[in-house]
UniProtKB/TrEMBL annotation:
Keywords: Aminotransferase, Pyridoxal phosphate, Transferase. This is Pyridoxal phosphate-dependent aminotransferase. It comes from the Bacteria. The lineage of its organism: Bacteria, Pseudomonadati, Bacteroidota, Cytophagia, Cytophagales. Pfam families: DegT_DnrJ_EryC1. It comes from Rufibacter radiotolerans. InterPro entries: DegT/StrS_aminotransferase (IPR000653), PyrdxlP-dep_Trfase (IPR015424), PyrdxlP-dep_Trfase_major (IPR015421), PyrdxlP-dep_Trfase_small (IPR015422). The keyword Transferase applies. The active site is at 192 (proton acceptor). Belongs to the DegT/DnrJ/EryC1 family. The modification N6-(pyridoxal phosphate)lysine is found at residue 192.
Length: 375
């Protein structure tokens, strides 16, 4: 739906101006579809940045689906998953016919709680079954507590699939998010820190896994001159046009990270005197791309997040609730859950503020005025 011109969106696409150049090249060579120099270029450039092998995929969700398939996960298997996330993190578990087990957050990073993870693993061992993988999300760009989580999963021999869809450019102890897991997924959907209009990537240090994922993503065609198939495949590759947009966006990734971080710092400074607002801190050793600036309202606040959201909307400003935890979704009714209600509390008290990397200071001051007015 179209909005008035001065409507402030949550996180709109922000072009660098270089995208057209790559798209024009694709048109000039008539490489419009699922092969071409932009795809290989995008894979190499993103791979160079991450120091990993990359497969360009049609969406982040499809990349997660392929990750589970590449690890051979299927019916009868259990997969652990962060409960506090967007539904696309969990749905691929159902696509492959496996069973999700949801794990709560901790309050420091809002991501997977190591002690809830440990409790869950102990309990599953007693029930006689270990999960085949853990899908770990770095929500809103904040890295999870990797050291503690890796120590636990290594002890139980459970591989980590990172959902780094929101965390491109974020770091934990200097290491980029999306380079910890056996396989990781990124998203380049329109509202992410960089976009390909729609798209994703599957990433791994293991070149064979990435090759296998590319093969699954191109209908699993056997290496014969005719069309011969022994495995169920998918049509999951990114188009050469979309990859061209991605190349133009990758050129400004570090700039976008700095812009998102500035948006966060501005909000924090300008709203300093609003006592009812709390901020997600960045602990020592953590570096968030601050994809979205999220706040929580203190217990006993004079406004609910929903009241604040509606006030902002009256001022032509888009704010959004935090993700509703997966164990609260009717879709996942009955799924096992381990935790103490941290994600529930965040959902009840949280709100995402407009955080576009192109948000002007003047527009941000308008948001701040509306927030102060609401309180
Ligand atoms: C956006 C997102 C996805 C899905 O990515 P698409 O490219 O939209 O399929 C997965 N997980 C998280 C946490 C996301 O934010």
């Amino acid at each position: 739906m179209s909005q008035p011109q001065d409507f402030i969106y949550l996180s709109p696409p922000h072009m660098s101006g270089r995208e057209q150049h790559y798209i024009q090249e694709a048109f000039d060579l008539n490489w419009i579809t699922s092969a071409g120099a932009n795809i290989t270029g995008f894979e190499q450039e993103l791979g160079g940045y991450l120091g990993m092998h990359v497969a360009a995929i049609s969406s982040g969700t499809a990349a997660l689906h392929l990750a589970l398939l590449a690890l051979g996960i299927g019916p009868g298997d259990e997969v652990f998953c962060s409960t506090f996330t967007f539904v696309a993190t969990a749905n691929p578990i159902l696509y492959v016919g496996a069973t999700p087990v949801f794990i709560d957050s901790e309050p420091t990073t809002w991501n997977l709680c190591p002690s809830a993870l440990e409790d869950a693993l102990k309990d599953r061992v007693q029930k006689g079954k270990l999960p085949k993988a853990l899908i770990l999300v770095h929500l809103y760009g904040m890295p999870a507590q990797m050291k503690e989580i890796q120590e636990i999963t290594a002890r139980y021999g459970v591989p980590i699939i990172e959902d780094a869809a929101e965390a491109l450019g974020s770091r934990y102890q200097g290491q980029l998010a999306g380079t910890f897991g056996i396989i990781s997924a990124f998203s380049f959907n329109g509202n992410k820190i960089i976009t390909t209009s729609g798209g994703g990537a599957l990433v791994s240090a293991d070149a064979k896994l990435v090759e296998h994922a590319k093969w699954l993503a191109t209908q699993a065609k056997e290496h014969t001159p005719y069309y011969h198939h022994t495995t169920l495949g998918y049509n999951y590759r990114l188009s050469n046009i979309s990859a061209g947009i991605g190349r133009g966006q990758l050129e400004v990734l570090e700039e976008r990270v700095q812009q998102k971080r500035t948006v966060f710092q501005n909000y924090k400074r300008l709203l300093e005197d609003v006592q009812e607002i709390e901020w997600l801190p960045e602990p020592e050793g953590f570096f968030s791309n601050r994809w979205l600036t999220c706040i929580t309202l203190k217990k006993g606040s004079s406004l609910t997040p929903e009241q604040l959201r509606l006030k902002l909307l009256e001022g032509l400003i888009e704010a959004r609730p935090l993700w509703q935890p997966m164990h609260r979704q009717p879709l996942y009714h009955g799924a096992a859950y381990y935790g103490g209600g941290v994600a529930d509390d965040l959902f009840a008290r949280g709100l995402c503020l407009p955080s576009g990397s192109s948000l002007s200071l003047a527009d941000q001051e308008r948001v701040v005025r509306e927030i102060k007015g609401a309180f």
